[in-house]
Amino acid sequence: MITLNPMMLQSWIKEWLAEDIGTGDVTSLVTIPENHESIGIIHMKDEGIIAGLPVAEMVFRTVDDRLKFKALAQEGSRVSRGMIVARVHGNTRSILSGERLALNLLQRMSGIATKTAEFVRELEGLPVRLVDTRKTTPGHRLLEKYAVRAGGGHNHRLGLSDAVMIKDNHIKAAGGIRRAVEAARAAIPHTMKIEVEAETLEQVQEAIDAGADIIMLDNMPIPMMEEAVRLIRSRASHVVIEASGGVTIETVRRIAQTGVDVISVGGLTHSVRSLDISLDLNEKKERRV
């Protein structure tokens, strides 16, 4: 499970704030008195799953540790349009200096959690696990994978060092599936698993014969996927079966019904609409219709 390491997260936030603030928030510095205080009201202009409230709090606390942040919604819960999800109280300049970064992260993470929850609902009642991929925003992978968990999904490997995942280019370069698996098995510790990507039934059989721990059925049509599942279950029942490639909200349940164990969806993170979340000082502006 992905957790948010406070020291690592604060280090990133400092870099992101430096990018945004530069030498100072010149507008706030010249228009707002130094000791002016406000309450920042963070509210939804959209509906979905909220994720990233602890991250938003850390943004404001990094800007000014005197700011007081209070979450008013539970992380990972469903929120509605108009709902106030948090308040931040303290120096007005500080609130406005952290506003954009806090909202950017909150909106993106909530968008990921919301999309994940939509996929999870499609899989209700089926014994399958929905997972993300490495198709994440550079520098934001931990936050985006955390958001997938907030939406009810699970995480695939975090990075290249986590597991052996033999894909088509590895197979070509190694001289075949068996050679790739044998080379990997000889080099890795016994605690590490080997996953092999298969695009055809012939490759599925090769992966079984080579002793793969996980077989990924990549971009297979449903009938071929069903046949691949039957083949694996009959000859290597211990192997975990993953489906991947072009999975959509319209197809995910049908894919799950083939009997796979895991479905990986890059779209959970690589093409997400951020939720619309706003911060108003002292009073929430009503949305105009």
Give structural notes.
The protein is of the alpha/beta class and 289 residues long. The protein folds into 2 domains: 6-114 and 272-281, Aldehyde Oxidoreductase, domain 3 (Alpha-Beta Complex); 121-270, Alpha-Beta Barrel (TIM Barrel). The protein has 11 helices and 12 strands. It has a 6-stranded parallel beta sheet. The longest helix is centred in the middle third of the chain and has 31 residues, at 92-122. The radius of gyration is 23 Å and the shape is elongated. The two termini are 41 Å apart.
The mean pLDDT is 96
Oligomeric description of these chains: single chain
Question: Main beta sheet: strand number and arrangement?
Answer: 6 strands, parallel
Distance between the termini: 41 Å
The main sheet orders its strands as: 6-11-10-9-8-7
Order of helices and strands: HHEEHEEEHEHEHHEHEHEHEHE
Number of strands: 12
- Rg on CA atoms, Å: 23 Å
CATH level-1 class of the largest domain: Alpha Beta
| Helical coverage, percent range | 40-55%
How many helical elements?
11
Question: What's the CATH H-level superfamily name of the largest domain?
Answer: Aldolase class I
Shape: elongated
Strand content: 15-25%
Number of domains: 2
Return the CATH topology of the largest domain: TIM Barrel
* Secondary-structure-derived class: alpha/beta
Poorly predicted runs: none
